[in-house]
Amino acid sequence: MLDKYRNKVERIINPIASKIKLEANFLSYLSLLFAIFSGISSYFSYEIRYLLLVSSFFIIINGFLDAIDGEIARIRKKESKKGDFIDHSIDRFSDVFMLGGIAISPWINKIIGIASLSIVLLISYLGTQAQAIGYKRVYSGLLGRADRILILFISLIIQFFVQYKIFGFFLIEWVMLYFIFAGLITIIQRYFEIIKWLEFDK
After folding, report:
1. How buried is residue 74: exposed, middle or buried, by Cβ count under 10 Å (0-12/13-18/19+)?
2. Nearest C-alpha neighbor of 176 from the set 118, 124, 127
3. What is the DSSP letter of 48?
4. What's the pTM?
5. Rounded distance, CA 85 to CA 70, Å?
6. Which runs of consecutive H residues, i.e. helices, occur in the chain?
7. Would you state the pLDDT for residue 202?
8. What DSSP character marks residue 169?
9. Strand-pair partners of 166
10. CA-to-CA distance for 47 and 107, rounded, in angstroms?
11. Among 18, 64, 116, 201, whose Cα sits 20 to 30 Å from the Cα of 153?
């Protein structure tokens, strides 16, 4: 959903990216490190509650680095297939660590957690598979990566302050349920967008 604001975000981060001297691929790998820290923090956050805030911070840093690495590559005219592969691979690894840490934590019913993580990975698979068959990289749909990053960032902060269950579930469980629901819609949206392109491309 936030993908439609991609151009506006790029205009905002462009001045920041132009001042950073580090390589884009290095920032991609650095974002993975924060994702791992986030996953570990989330896993232990049920016993050590302030780790919810720590994990939230790591998630938003991961999202920032993910946004800025590609912009740096574009500014320096160093966009490449290798960089694209590293960027998207690191994103998937990061998704697994960030969501996985939450999914297997005591906050979450494991079935809900595993279903949520699986659907998020399927969303991303459709996006890259579209590019693999000659269509563009698909970011469209109700639940893109930017949406997930922002929702997780905010929800972990709220979970720190609201630590009781709401209608039988912790807030972060409701978020995982939303990821399942919105994720399924996103999968359908992307699937039919790609099918439509394939039929037009005959």
Report:
1. middle
2. 118
3. S
4. 0.91
5. 11
6. 6-19, 24-44, 51-75, 81-103, 110-132, 145-161, 171-200
7. 63
8. B
9. 169
10. 10
11. 18
pLDDT in tens, 47-59: 999 999 999 999 9
3-state secondary structure of 153: helix
What DSSP state is assigned to residue 166? B
Count of positions (residues) in the chain: 202
Instruction: Please provide residue 46's backbone torsions phi and psi, each rounded to the nearest 5 degrees.
Output: -70, -40
Q: CA-to-CA distance for 19 and 13, rounded, in angstroms?
A: 10
List, in sequence order, every residue forming a beta bridge with 169; answer none if it has no partner: 166
Rounded CA-CA distance 184/145 in Å is: 14
Which of 4-18, 31-45, 70-84 is predicted with the least confidence, judged by mean pLDDT? 4-18
Summarize pLDDT for 179-188 with one digit per residue, the tens: 999 999 999 9
Q: 90: which 2 tokens?
A: 């690191």
Query: Residue 119: which of 40, 177, 38 has the closest Cα?
Result: 177
Sign of CA dihedral 57, 63, 66, 71: negative
Report residue 10's pLDDT band, with 50, 70 and 90 as the boundaries. Answer: confident
Which of 197, 159, 171 shows the shortest CA–CA distance to 49? 159
